Amino acid sequence: MNAPRIVLTVGLLAHAVAADLIAQQDMRVAPGARVRVTAPTVAEGIVVGTVASAHSDTLVLEVNEDSLLAIPLTTVTSLEVSEGQSSSAGSGAVVGGLAGLVAGALIASSIVEESSGSGFAAGDYDGIVATVGGAVAGLFVGAIVGAGIGSAIMTENWKDVPVDEIRVGLLPAFDGVAVSASIRF
Q1: Do residues 16 and 171 lie in contact, with contact meaning Cβ atoms separated by under 8 Å?
Q2: In 3D, which of 72, 31, 38, 44 has the Cα closest to residue 158?
Q3: CA atoms within 13 A on the CB side of 5
Q4: Which residue stretches of 27-88 are H helix?
Q5: pTM here?
Q6: Can you list the alpha helix ranges (DSSP code H) found in 117-153?
Q7: How does pLDDT run across 104-130, given as a tens digit for each residue?
Q8: Alpha-carbon distances of 4 from 8, 15, 128, 173, rounded to whole Å
């Protein structure tokens, strides 16, 4: 073997190892990940499952405890990976706080009207203070109740994974260097 050929072979092997390491770091769907897949020619609707294995041309999902589904990557039109679940405590606090604000203001306003026998008159400072106080109290109570209810509501967060990009790499082979192509997801 001559020197340029040795240099070329070593360079290709180094590139193959580096490309393989980069590809492994780039892998966004790994076994054990919870995914949502749309593959109209394989299954109707959206399939949710856990990745049992990911190959260059097929994604194998565990859709229930004893059922595996092999999905050719060429049929996948949409792929999402779960980023875990989060509670809705924040949005519950906002919704509850707004509802409490309105309810507190209305309740305080109706109490002021009943006690005074008529609606607010110009310069009715006590009535305005009572209504604002009721609104503020309703805001706090509503926010606490809303956060409590929202914390019991869990939402799964999904992240889109591109399925249309092709990854080509060089792999060391027994008798030289092999070129491989796979869909990156």
Answers
A1: yes
A2: 38
A3: 4
A4: none
A5: 0.50
A6: 125-151
A7: 988 888 887 777 665 555 457 777 888
A8: 6, 16, 91, 20
